[in-house]
Each structure stands twice: as structure tokens, then as C-alpha cells.
Amino acid sequence: MKNSPSSKTKAQIWVVDNHNFVTRSDQLATEEPLEIRLTFPKQTIAVTMRTPGADFDLAAGFLYSEGIIKNREDIEKISYCIDPEIDGEQRQNIVNITLKSELNPNLKTLERHFFTTSACGICGKASIESLHIKGFSAIPLKSEVPAEVIYSLPEKLSNAQRVFKSTGGLHAAALFDTQGELLKLREDVGRHNALDKLIGSEFLAGILPLNNHIVMVSGRSSFEIIQKCITVGVPIVCAVSAPSSLAVEIAREFNITLIGFLRGKKFNIYSGVERIKVGQKIEYT
Questions:
Q1: What pLDDT is recorded for position 280?
Q2: Is 263 known to sit in a ligand binding site?
Q3: 188-203 pLDDT, tens per residue?
Q4: Where are the transmembrane segments (predicted)?
Q5: What is the rounded distance in angstroms from the CA atom of residue 248 to the CA atom of residue 89?
Q6: Catalytic: 120?
Q7: Residue 42 assigned ligand-binding role
Q8: How confident is the prediction for the chain on average, in pLDDT?
Q9: Which CATH number do you get for residue 163?
């Protein structure tokens, strides 16, 4: 079997510079479909456009954040497709997951994922209620994190984005401890995929839950980003850009500290302000 597709793709481009054409080679972030299959019952449960790399983490993180699996032992095997009737290159875009035989997953919750894009997402109060039904509750307040720690996160995330530096076209999800040390980072064309890769990596390593950690994502924070963080108990979620209204609503519902517009020494706190330690709090009417 051939190696999995590269996360970068070469392309010849034309650069317009002061009314002149210049041709050069460029690196693009690869975007290819990943089909996630269960071997029993034999079924495709999701197709998502992703950047190749950490595909097993992505598949495991997706299943965990969707509530299909709860423990590492629920997975008996993860592998790329070995079907000889499928083109060898495309086999690397199919991940097969074998769950333990006694597991009887409810796959109806995955119907919306039959085909998704890298920017997919869901919204609605019914989804918030479904998290309560699944047993998730408000994340307790444990300790304060100094604002200086939050200030330091964007630069650390940026410095660790290896593929982004050469392509300029990838999102990232990074995991930090509450002292601001970068523990792990995953990249993808989609924020949700990057976060699933990050969650899946910790899940397969047996490190969940993430009750004493900070997650930072590039771009904005959406409902689905917060939903995934709730499933693994992340208390603080940071983003470079703005959150959506539903992201704020669900963060407040589950007591997540949600931070947006984190740039330089300035950021907005949309919920959970109690976890952030600052020198002085000034209230304006």
C-alpha cells in the first residue's frame, strides 16, 4: 500500500507584481475526501473534506465527540481500506473502524454527516438539549488562569503550524496546559477536523478528559467547536476571531470560558470570566 497523501500539493502559479507577471511554484494545503466506515455494521458514517494526515485521530475523535464511542477499548481496529477493487490512491482516503462486537451504537445521530464539508456545522437549541440528555453538565470552576498565559497562546500556536507556514491555507487546533505550555497541535483545512484530530489523538492515548487544559483554534469558534470541547471537558476555549451567537449560548450553558479576538495583549471574554485572572476589572455601563 502506498503512503498516505501528502498534506501539501505543489502548484504552478502566476504572481502579479507591479503590472508584471511572475511565474513560480507554490505549496497548497491538500484537500481530499475522507470516508469513515464502520466494518460492522458495514456502513459509511461520514464523508468529510480534510487535509491528509492524522486520519486515524480524526476518525476516532469524530466518533468520540459524536458519542458513538466512550472508551479506547470500544475500538478494536482502525485501518485504511484494503479493498483491492478500489484504486490504491483512493484507499488512503477511506478509514475502516472495527468496534467491539457487543457495542450497539446509535447511528441515527450521524445522519447529518453522510456528506459534510470542511466548514460543516450544526446549530439549534435541540442540539444543546441533546448534550444534557447525553449526560454532559456544566464544567466546574477549578482555578484561575492569568491573562498573561492567554496572551502567550497565539504566538505559540502560530509558531507550531508547520504546514500553514508553507501553504497559508490551514486551520489549527492546539492543546495547552493551564500554564500555557503547548502540548499538541493538529492542522486541517477545516477547524472541526483539526479539533477532531486533536481530540482523537488524546482519546487514543488514553488522556481524556481534558479538565485542566486550554484549547485554542484558529479562525472563529462555532457551535460545533464548543460542542466538541464539552464532550472532553475543556474549561477554556480561545479563538483568534469572533464566536457565533450559538457558540456563546452553549458556552454559557455549560460554564465554558469562551475567549475571542485573541490578538496581542487584548481579547474578549464571552462567558466564564471567573477563570481569567487580571490585574483590575473595570465595569462600564
A1: 62
A2: yes
A3: 888 888 999 999 999 9
A4: none
A5: 41
A6: yes
A7: no
A8: 80
A9: 3.40.140.10
